[in-house]
Fold each of these.
Amino acid sequence: MIMEETHSWMNTEILEAILKASSERTSDKLTVLSTKVTKGVEEGKNNCSAIYRLHVDVEDSNKVTTKSFIVKKVFDFAIGWYRDKENSAFRFVLPQIEQFVETQLSPRLFLSLDSLLVMEDLAEKGFRNVEGSLLNFDHCALAVEALAKFHAGSIMIHKSDPRLIEETVGWEVFKDNPNLDVSIFMKSMFSKFQKEISTWPESDKYAGYFSTLVDEVDGYLENLTNRGCRVLNHGDFWLNNMMFRYSQGVCEVKMVDFQMCRFTSPSYDLQYFVASSADLDVRLHRLDELYGLYLDTMNRYLPGVLTEEQLGRCLHEDAMAYWYGMTSALCVVLSDPELMYRSDGQDFNSDVFDRFGLMMKSSGYRELIPRVLDDLARRGLLSTGRG
């Protein structure tokens, strides 16, 4: 067998465990001919882990095939909370949720170690990320339906095992973690955004709103996990963390990356998703339809669990999550290539903040945001001042 030795995590024992767990090794007749490791995502798009694609050439009954797996190797700064969150989410939470809703929402997990996850390669089944554009209603509908199933399943688990949902997987990762001080990051994003739109003649009237929004960040984060109807949120639900399959149009979605899960209102995921990932038509014309689909799906599995009035109140309380998604993840989605933020495990620092400030100058972002702000103001969700 030819094996690439440049990655310390790759050895014969791990390979055998992967093949056994994935049911690829069903007999002694299966022979591993070679392995190859390539990058799973473009360099610079890794926030908490390095993603690799493991290719394994196997021979069975004189037939040679290539199997592919995704390997997620966590960066050192995130090992502790990665182990507690994503590892536990894949091993203990997702199997129960998927059984409850009778839907596979995520890739199959084959191996989990302290700093390593090995899972199925969804690309082999035709799934892919949406690159360089926002999601139309058909994509958003699939995403929100999957999200509702995830939320509903977490409520079901919470009834019998609240500690698993609240403490093992849903604890707030940003508290007491100097490497991931989201308070500083959010305040910086709002300040950068306020400074940028103050130079836009059609939007400068909203700058004052975001100037004073900075003062509300700490209070919002402090109470994030203590409000109203609570579910296990994905926590980072935007288009980069979902993959779609197509057959005469988009037909299926899978959720990936569960290291940011938190136990809070379902509206956090919804607000962040719409702000970061929905196209203009969805934002201006089809939000009620989208939220209705979410409610219908939730109540199909748990009748009466959430009313339209309750969801509306939650969405209002979680407006901060919308502003956060709009000033951070949306910048990445719409960034001009030369302004794109590249991560690979960097801590939040002034250089990162400045890069997001530059991405706010991207042509796609500059074109979209004024129309979004005007629509929010029209609906009474944004004012030209605070006070």
Amino acid sequence: MSLFKVEAINLKTTPFAEQDKLLTVFSKEKGKLSVIAKGARRPSSKFGGRCEIFAYNHLLIAKGKSLDILSQAETIETFQKVRDNPSAFMVAAYLARVVNSFLEEAAVNRSLFEVLLGCLKLFQAGVDPQFVATVFEIKFAAVEGFTPILDRCSHCGRKVKKAPQNIRFSDAAGGIVCEKCSFSVYTPRLVSFPLLVLSQKIRDQDFETLRNNYKQHGDLSQLSEIFVAYISEHLGKDISEWKRFGI
């Protein structure tokens, strides 16, 4: 039985058989994996809290015929504060569900891994959970290659010289649309252009900067609504309910 090592975040944990747990983990090296942690439901389990949701571990995994088996786990970060804070937990569960639903099994995605890890660290540092959700939504769209087009009409390509305070935005077209094209694009909506510009700033900032300056950004609920609808369009799944109820 061959062994391999990964650095991974627990996206989901499910009871399995009488005493085991089925872990869905997002690893930096091998993408999303399903792993059986034998005996993890026993109080005396050697794995302890390493099988909890959001836990970040070094894992030694044995390759199985149908399911891989967790052999050893060493904690990097428990993210216990995330689980202890109901608001942070609910939003973090939403992030984990988006990632879990988006990823194919064993598809490596290091950029998305770093985004999820960075967001968990923001939660751990006490950053407002709703701000973290907005950061995730903006960076998720960016690393997956569908960040909104804001410098030209996303339908015809015409440059926008001076955008108004509110501008037509199309989820399907992938960004802003000019007045002429608004009649050709399905249900464009008016959104705040300054908020869209702010999303570019957040997209480009590192997590340390976001942690130190998050209070300067104020209420970003409208920006989050824009990106939730935008991501839902591109994934073909309505993630707004996921955000409302977490897992």
Amino acid sequence: MVMQPICEPVDLPLGLTALVAQVAMAAGSPPPARLLHFHDVAEIVLFGNTHGRLFCAGESFAIRPSSVVFVPSMCYHDYLFDDGPKHWTLIQIEPYLVEQLARQGDGATLARPLCVDPDNASGGRLHMLAEWLAETARTNAADPIIDRIVGLILSALVRLPTVAGEPSADTASHLSRFLPVVERLRQAPGGRLTLGEAATLCHVSPAYFSRRFAAVFGCGFADYVTSYRLHVASRRIATTATPLSEIGYDLGFSSHSHFTARFRERFGIAPREYRKRLARALA
């Protein structure tokens, strides 16, 4: 039984499609605590002088200096690090960026975790792109070129020889039970999906579904659906010229005022003002 949520909420700031963090730990620093978890964002990790293992989707991958890993959205994973100094660059990415690249032909590859050990030349190019991404994000986190840099990194990764994983005893039984619901939301974020219907998709009773969903995701089912729809709305506002009222109705909100109220409640700004800010930032 899960005693704490294994969904690690990662909210990219409104309007941003990627976050970059550089982590360095001295030789005597305690290793990060292990936690089998998942989140909506996808992630790329470029390791420096680091040894350990990645546990992901039932497999274990060796991490060495220069290793680069990719973990898809909603894919449970965990890291175990050896003693010694550690350094890595973490890039967290909106999943729709990965989906866009997948539609260009790399879908099967990016549906699974990847671990690569690039040669010096390939590794140097990847780290150069990561540095460019980090510098751009520091200068203007809403710069449209960020999406292109992320695309270049992902395109480079899928063209490198992968490290074979080994079977791992870590399982995703707690998450996998809810994957039909997560997939339904991705395919039709504005479609009608009651708690009873979600429970039926997962072949459990509504009461059991409600308890277990809250334990795994850290929030109730209705709150999760609303939050997911609002994140989809923020992406559509940022990337399309679709009228705001149409976005709200398409995502299942009963009225424009209802959509505006929930958007403001979630992000602290009304959808119309958010679109205006984006337009000013890109002008």
